[in-house]
C-alpha cells in the first residue's frame, strides 16, 4: 500500500518537471539562421522595417534566455523568425519585380525593333 503514494508523488513530480519550459535553443538557432538569410539577400534594418522588428524581438528573446524566461524567449524568437522570413520575402519580391521590369523593357524594345524591320 505504501508504494501507491510513492508512485503518485513521483508522477506529480514528473508532471511538474514537464510543465517547466525548456530552453528554446533550437528556435534561437532557427531565428539566427533566418536573420542571416534575410541579410544575405540584401535586407537591411534601414530599408526593410520587418528586419528591424526581427532584430529587436530577437534581442528581447536573448534577454529572456538570460533571465531563464524560456516561454517568452521561445515566443519572441518565433516572432523574430517570422519577421525575418517576411523581410527576406519582401526583398526577393522587390528584386524579382525589378528583374521583370527590365525584361519587359527589353521585350518592348525587341518588338519595336522587329516592327521597324518589317
Give a short summary of the structure:
This protein is mostly helical. It is 84% helix and 0% strand. The chain has a domain at 21-91: Substrate Binding Domain Of Dnak, Chain:A, Domain 2 (Up-down Bundle), CATH 1.20.1270.390.
How would you characterize the overall build of this protein?
The protein has 118 residues and is mainly α. It has a domain at 21-91: Substrate Binding Domain Of Dnak, Chain:A, Domain 2, CATH 1.20.1270. The protein is 84% helix and 0% strand. It contains four helices and no strands. The protein is elongated, with a radius of gyration of 26 Å.
Encode the helix/strand succession as letters. HHHH
Q: How large is the radius of gyration?
A: 26 Å
End-to-end Cα distance, whole Å, is 102 Å
Q: If you average the pLDDT, what whole number results?
A: 89
Silhouette: elongated
Question: What top-tier CATH class of the domain at 21-91 fits best?
Answer: Mainly Alpha
What is the number of E strands? 0
Number of helices: 4
Tell me the helix content: over 70%
CATH topology of the domain at 21-91: Substrate Binding Domain Of Dnak, Chain:A, Domain 2
Please identify the structural class as seen in this structure: mainly alpha
What percent of residues are in strands? under 5%
Q: Can you tell me the CATH architecture of the domain at 21-91?
A: Up-down Bundle
Largest sheet: none
Poorly predicted runs of 5 or more residues: none
Amino acid at each position: 500500500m505504501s508504494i501507491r503514494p510513492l508512485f503518485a508523488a513521483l508522477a506529480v513530480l514528473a508532471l511538474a518537471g514537464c510543465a517547466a519550459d525548456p530552453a528554446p535553443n533550437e528556435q534561437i538557432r532557427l531565428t539566427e539562421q533566418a536573420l542571416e538569410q534575410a541579410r544575405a539577400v540584401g535586407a537591411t534594418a534601414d530599408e526593410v522595417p520587418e528586419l528591424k522588428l526581427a532584430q529587436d524581438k530577437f534581442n528581447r528573446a536573448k534577454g529572456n534566455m538570460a533571465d531563464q524566461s524560456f516561454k517568452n524567449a521561445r515566443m519572441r524568437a518565433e516572432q523574430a523568425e517570422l519577421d525575418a522570413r517576411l523581410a527576406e520575402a519582401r526583398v526577393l519580391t522587390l528584386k524579382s519585380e525589378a528583374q521583370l521590369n527590365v525584361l519587359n523593357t527589353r521585350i518592348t524594345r525587341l518588338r519595336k525593333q522587329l516592327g521597324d524591320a518589317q
